[in-house]
Structure formats: C-alpha cells, structure tokens
Design brief:
single chain, 9% strand, elongated, binds zinc ion
Length: 87
C-alpha cells in the first residue's frame, strides 16, 4: 500500500500541517489507525505539558479520590477546563 502526503488541520491551533506519507506509514506500522489531530508543534507542546503535569502530580500527591483517574487527565482537566483531554 502506498501513501500520499495529506493536508490536515490542527484541532488545537487551526494550522494546516502535512501528514506525510512517511508518517502515515509509521502510524500504520504501529497499528495506529487514527490520523493525528494536532500539528507537530502542538503535539510537542502537549507532550511537554503532560510531562510537566506528571511531575506536578507526583509532587503534590493527588488525593485518593482522584487516583483512579489518570493523574494527567485529572490535572489537565483542572488546568484547561473545556479542552478535550483525550489524545
Ligand atoms: Zn497546532
């Protein structure tokens, strides 16, 4: 199967970005069927943010009631309410 570069729009900042054939192949190889929703910039920013949130979550020790949730999801929902926390 051959891939072609695709133009996608970032759900985060609205910028157009290329989902390259190479990336599509990489995604397929990993068994990922969903197209990326965010441009590379936003993806990177998000990764850094999640790392930061993990650090903060660890430091502050969330109360038990929150621990059944992914600390990341809980923290990002708190910090950025209204934003879909799913990837
Ligand atoms: Zn973006």
């Amino acid at each position: 199967m051959s891939y072609e570069d695709k133009n996608l729009t970032c759900v985060e900042c609205g910028a157009d970005f290329i989902f390259s054939a190479q990336e599509q192949e990489f995604f397929a190889a990993k068994g990922l069927t969903n197209e990326p929703k965010r441009c590379p910039d936003c993806r990177q920013a998000r990764r850094q943010q999640r790392r930061e949130l993990h650090r903060v979550a660890k430091r502050h020790r969330y109360p038990l009631s929150l621990e059944k949730d992914d600390p990341c999801t809980a923290a990002s929902a708190t910090l950025k309410s209204g934003v879909n926390p799913s990837i």
